[in-house]
Design brief:
This protein is of the alpha+beta class. It has one domain (3-52). Helix content is 32%, strand content 18%. The chain has one helix spanning 33-53, and strands at 3-7, 16-20, 23-24.
């Protein structure tokens, strides 16, 4: 998953938005740059935690070459 912060819908201070996989998240527009970066970090951390919440040793598979 790719999460990005970009200018969106204007050229003023509050025209930053968060994009997930290239699509703008509608509720995360009209932000200043530091707010957008904060939301990006939160989304990234949540997804990282989701990926490993149900992980256990039975899911591990050894990779052989």
């Amino acid at each position: 998953m790719k999460v990005a912060v970009k200018k969106y819908g204007g050229d003023d201070e509050l025209s930053w938005a968060v994009f997930v996989n290239g699509v703008v998240v509608p509720s995360l527009t009209g932000l200043n740059q530091s707010q957008a970066r904060s939301f990006r970090q939160q989304i990234t951390e949540e997804k990282r935690e989701e990926r490993f919440t149900d992980w256990d040793e039975t899911n591990f598979k050894e990779v052989s070459e």
